[in-house]
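Title: Prediction job returns without error message
Component: structure pipeline
Severity: low
Priority: P3
Assignee: unassigned

Description:
Job completed but the reporter wants confirmation the result is attached to the right record. Sequence as submitted:
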Amino acid sequence: MKYKFIFIYIFFFTFPKLAISQNSKVEIGIDEQLGAFLPLDTEFINSEGEKLKLGDVINKPTLLAFVYYECPGICSTTLSSLAWVVDKVDLTPGKDFNVITISIDNGETPEIAKGSKENYLGAIQRKFPSKAWLFLTGDSLAIKKVTDIAGVHFKKYGDEYRHPGGIIAVSPQGKISRYLFGTEFNQFDVKMALLDAEAGKTNPTITKFLKLCFSFDPKGHSYKVNVTRIVGAIMLTAILLYFVFLIFFKSKKIPN
């Protein structure tokens, strides 16, 4: 009974607290907020210098990317991959889905956004309506309001931002449906994410594993193995297995 009580305490009290502490320490990364609704009343400025609310442009399944247009790191790879995949995906842009890019740098201007839009739209081979991919800028309050709800965490160091890579599928009602992580995307994942968003479904990704085993290296602009978290997870698993062994597989007493 004593061992059972210890095991129950660790499993139901200690382990959840460890999980919560991991999530609460997210400073640069993505903390999934599946099912959350983006603040559609938030105002941004498009590449033509026009003010608009998110609710005005999120009216169909939408792929949302948080980047900054003059990023020297993973943003260009993310947007190039995004341009490639929306060119290939078996859905009609402007009808079945839209794409929205929001700069996390409040210092970037509509002119900078316009240059990026021309660059990435120009890389798409098929007919892609200009209004189907918006490049937005905004003030720090608007950016923080949306990124906080989306669970996207970043920090500015000098002239650069340390931030994660990935895109988010959002329903026509602004509901976060799915996260696609990394800087490269495939047609199947993107199509399924958009169809789920259309249906209002939420689907978790393998981000729990990525959070546990990897952390973003802003200097190398890549993900690296987080040894501390892996060792901690192994130790915790070993302790739990030890108590399971004590409870369910007690050793036989050696006869006198």
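Comment from assignee: result matches the submitted record. The chain has two domains: 2-25+227-248, 31-217.
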